[in-house]
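Batch manifest line 354
LIGAND: iron/sulfur cluster
JOB: complex structure
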Amino acid sequence: MKQLHARYPFLQAAREAVETADVDFASVVRREDAVVDRAFDRVEAALDGGAVGDPHRRTRVELLSYPVARVLVSLVDEHVLTRKYARAEARTAHDRFSAERADSGLKSSSREPLTLGTLLAEFDLSASVRETQEGYAVEVGTYLDLAAGLRDDEWRLVHRSLRSGEVPVSESELLVLVREAVRKRVVDGLPLSVPDPIAEELSAEAERLRERLADLDLTHDIDTVVPDLFPPCMAALLDQVQRGAHLEHHSRFAIASFLTSIGMSTDEIVDLFQVNPGFGEEATRYQVDHIRGDTSATEYTPPACATMQSYGDCVNMDDRCETISHPLSYYGDALEDADEDELVDWRETDTSES
Ligand code: SF4
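JOB STATUS: finished
ARTIFACT:
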């Protein structure tokens, strides 16, 4: 087992090193407390600080703690933990690689280096990324795939230049895209199916993580209005409403029922819609009250993804869409995954008072 594998345990070579060593994980979790402790630290640090903590000084412990941490995350099996853990592993790899790359030009190191070329090859990106005079160019399909989980507007294709089917990026941007590839690999296959003897050995650690999760209260009430976290379909419909576009009845019903379902009052929805001076306030009030059940016998819920798709209202699908079957599930998961500083309720901003 090499130090390189311990530093980047998601590499295929690291996995093969563990397989070659013929590690018996039931025995590891029973006898090697240092591995279990470090695995627990990895996950706990992911919850606390967004990275996976300081590496253990022993290569074997550090490397084996990665698969054991994945087992712990699988035993807890909470979506928010899985997301935070994968993000933390990816962020740690990104920070480590960036630091090593910066250092490599300044001083010699006894460490076996991980080159950018090796990293790109690891994720089958060699053919879709090429170096240019200004930085790098990423084939557009690959770019869209990797940037899909990045929320900042700067990553949206409309804000990028596109040249001959390629998106130019700087080196630091390329490393963020590779970080996304790492995150996807870490999350891939989770939750694992854990054999009973291993689950029993790790039951105390899994329980402690469940308690940490409960303490942190990372599950947010869906009664929070953060338009930036809306599913793509609802963001697109809201955008159309606010631009004054004419919406078919099913589309108008979808956005209005979504907004009522996340706890918005009729007045708040009218406020949100009336950015467009041409909108019909009375019609909106009537429709929203009807959906809410105030003027009808039924309280309506928004359509599921399958219905949205059949009406052509499902647009701009992203990675999260692959994991849910209802726009409300999308939004609930997005709220859970968001950092605290992203969770500013639209109703608490000045815009809602203007
Ligand atoms: S998959 Fe569902 S949540 Fe995603 S855009 Fe389509 S309808 Fe909306």
